[in-house]
Write a structure and sequence with these properties.
The chain is 79% helix and 0% strand. It is mainly α. Its main location: membrane. It is found in: Membrane.
Length: 315
């Protein structure tokens, strides 16, 4: 089997990976209490399973963020040691499985929230398929169930230096099987970014056009919808697209057989994957734009002094 730079667990530049370590720890320290405070509100204040249907998707989004955050200290620990991943095969693949599962869940629920808002403001006359609470619970469960088998290919063959050293590989049918698994894995990596991005751009254009067309009446709901889908697009552009593009470049260098370039691409890819975890900090802005009730409850619970200032202004 050919050697690839991305199969090596040792960091090319230990100083660079120590910087990545500090970035991930900072993300973890800032995002964990924020997301815990959000999930507390959804469970104990908003009782998301009883409240309006959109809160079900928002709850699943924050759940995906918290599960992803749990993996960050593990990754950061090995970066600090000058290693890209754990040399323990089980730990390495388990962390990758969790990271890709929750990345996929974040993308799926961000897209669903945007489509929900699109139906509400662009097609108010059509029955919104996301307005039925029981159906949304079923959709949320289905998203997680579908993502589970789609994430498994990251654990089946050597990937991102997770090497199956415990079992001997036979050169015959394993090569073809590995090639199929690798192709499927890369499709699973890129498709959740590409297809939702097309959907989000379409929703953004349609909602923006709807805002321009509406010359009379209440435009506040439309403006909030425009801000919401624009923010989700920015999350994709800032958090998910850089890592996807860098992985594409990495694969191109691998196919062309350029080990030095691939080694640099691996380090860039790892850094941009660290950047992708920033969506855990940006998602709470999505909650505020998706639900005015959530925004009010959050501020009255954690920032009551700001609410007092607003009441004074109104009086």
């Amino acid at each position: 089997m050919a050697y690839h730079a991305s199969d090596n667990c040792t960091a090319g530049s230990k100083d660079l990976y120590k910087f990545y370590f500090s970035v991930m720890i900072t993300e973890f320290i800032l995002a964990l209490p924020l997301n815990l405070s959000v999930i507390y509100l959804f469970i104990f204040k908003l009782k998301f399973w009883k409240s309006k249907s959109n809160n079900i998707f928002l709850f699943n989004l924050v759940l995906a963020d918290i599960l992803l955050l749990i993996c960050l200290p593990v990754r950061a620990y090995y970066f600090q040691r000058g290693e890209r991943r754990s040399n323990n095969n089980t730990v390495c693949k388990s962390v990758l499985f969790m990271l890709f599962l929750n990345r996929g869940a974040s993308i799926a629920f961000l897209t669903i929230i945007s489509i929900n808002r699109y139906f509400s403001v662009v097609h108010p006359g059509i029955k919104n398929p996301f307005k039925i609470r029981k159906r949304n619970i079923l959709i949320s469960v289905l998203v997680w169930v579908v993502l589970l088998p789609l994430t498994i290919p990251s654990m089946l063959t050597s990937f991102e230096c997770c090497n199956s050293n415990e079992t001997e590989e036979t050169p015959g049918d394993t090569i073809a099987e590995n090639a199929t698994t690798i192709t499927f894995r890369e499709l699973v990596f890129f498709t959740p970014v590409l297809i939702p991005s097309i959907i989000l751009v379409y929703c953004t254009i349609r909602i923006t056009n709807r805002l321009k067309e509406k010359t009379v009446g209440d435009r506040t709901k439309l403006r909030r919808a425009v801000f919401l889908v624009t923010l989700v697009v920015l999350v994709f552009v800032f958090c998910f697209w850089p890592s996807a593009i860098s992985r594409l470049v990495l694969l191109m260098f691998r196919v062309q057989g350029l080990p030095k370039e691939e080694e640099i691409a691996v380090q860039v890819y790892d850094g941009l994957m660290c950047l992708s975890y920033l969506d855990c900090l940006l998602d709470p802005m999505v909650y505020c734009l998706s639900s005015t009730k959530f925004k009010h409850v959050y501020m009255s619970t954690y920032l009551p002094f700001l609410m007092k200032g607003r009441h004074m202004e109104h009086h």
